[in-house]
Write a structure and sequence with these properties.
Oligomer: single chain
Shape: elongated
Largest sheet: 7 strands, mixed
CATH superfamily of the largest domain: Vaccinia Virus protein VP39
Order of helices and strands: HEHEHEHEHEHEHHEEEHHHH
Helix content: 25-40%
Strand order of the largest sheet: 4-3-2-5-6-9-7
CATH topology of the largest domain: Rossmann fold
Number of domains: 2
CATH architecture of the largest domain: 3-Layer(aba) Sandwich
Strand content: 15-25%
Distance between the termini: 57 Å
Structural class: alpha/beta
């Protein structure tokens, strides 16, 4: 079924009396090229894929051509009958009316895919992008790739290198668990209705093990969060504000791992964050 073009998307919406909800971040992609890029980046290889927020099923349609099974989670119950219509030709697609943030994803993968590694593909609502990505990264899940459409500025932060203005806590989090890659930039005019900002597709390929070895992950991420808590301040002052040690003690700890006290958090590599968090423990 061809339902990629804006005119067809609008016709489907009219047929079902569907009104796009801004509060749910409902901006449906209408670019065949971008849909194919997302599906290819997911590296499904006739395996399983989870889609978050299928909308009218435009991306689901593309994933179903490549996957052994597609499990689509849609929070908006109004879309379920529409998806039954638009995806009716596929017997390898299952749509469930469920909120990804309230879902036991590990159990879902065990039940639906026998615990095999799967990819995740999604056009994420901007307002819950970070909670969804964080949950999938930290969930210790059998995932292969996470390919998501996000606001362009979020994509820039996810893929940012140390020492750049976009590098922050989300950069470290994503790059600790995955290898990140900017797939493509998508203009606002490629959506129905068009959002106010441009978007981008990011691929996060899960590492076999984290990028750096740490004894205490909680301390590692606590250190990272502290380092970016006040970007205009030096790393030393940020750490003093977030840890119990004195300024002199933290300065000594930083010196012991070869990190200058005048540096700022955005200049530290993952390896330096690992050394610093171990020393602060």
């Amino acid at each position: 079924m061809d339902f990629i073009s804006p005119s067809v998307i609008k016709r489907i919406a009219s047929k079902y009396g569907f009104v796009f909800k801004k509060g749910l971040g409902q901006n449906f992609l209408s670019s065949q090229d971008v849909l194919e890029e997302i599906a290819i980046a997911a590296e499904i290889d006739d395996g399983g894929v989870i889609e978050i927020g299928p909308g009218f099923g435009v991306l689901t349609n593309e994933l179903a051509k490549r996957a052994k099974k597609v499990l689509a989670l849609e929070i908006d119950e109004r879309l379920i009958p529409i998806l039954e219509d638009t995806l009716g030709e596929y017997d390898n697609v299952r749509v469930i009316n469920q909120d990804i943030l309230k879902t036991d994803v590990k159990k879902l993968i065990d039940d639906e895919f026998d615990g095999e590694k799967v990819s995740v593909a999604a056009n994420l609502p901007y307002y819950i992008t970070t909670p969804i990505i964080t949950g999938l990264l930290e969930g210790n899940l059998p995932l292969k790739n996470l390919v998501v459409m996000v606001q362009k500025e979020v994509a820039d932060r996810i893929t940012a290198e140390p020492g750049t203005k976009n590098y922050g806590a989300i950069s470290v989090l994503c790059q600790y668990y995955t290898e990140t890659e900017l797939v493509t930039i998508v203009g606002a005019n490629e959506f129905v209705p068009p959002p106010k900002v441009d978007s981008a597709v990011v691929k996060m390929a899960f590492r076999d093990k984290p990028a750096v070895e740490v004894k205490d992950e909680k301390m590692f991420f606590r250190t990272v969060k502290a380092a970016f808590s006040q970007r205009r301040k030096t790393l030393l002052n940020c750490l003093v504000a977030n840890f119990s040690q004195s300024k002199a003690e933290i300065a000594e700890i930083m010196e012991s791992v070869g990190i200058d006290a005048t540096r700022r958090g955005e200049t530290l590599s993952l390896d330096e964050f690992a050394k610093l968090s171990e020393a602060l423990s």
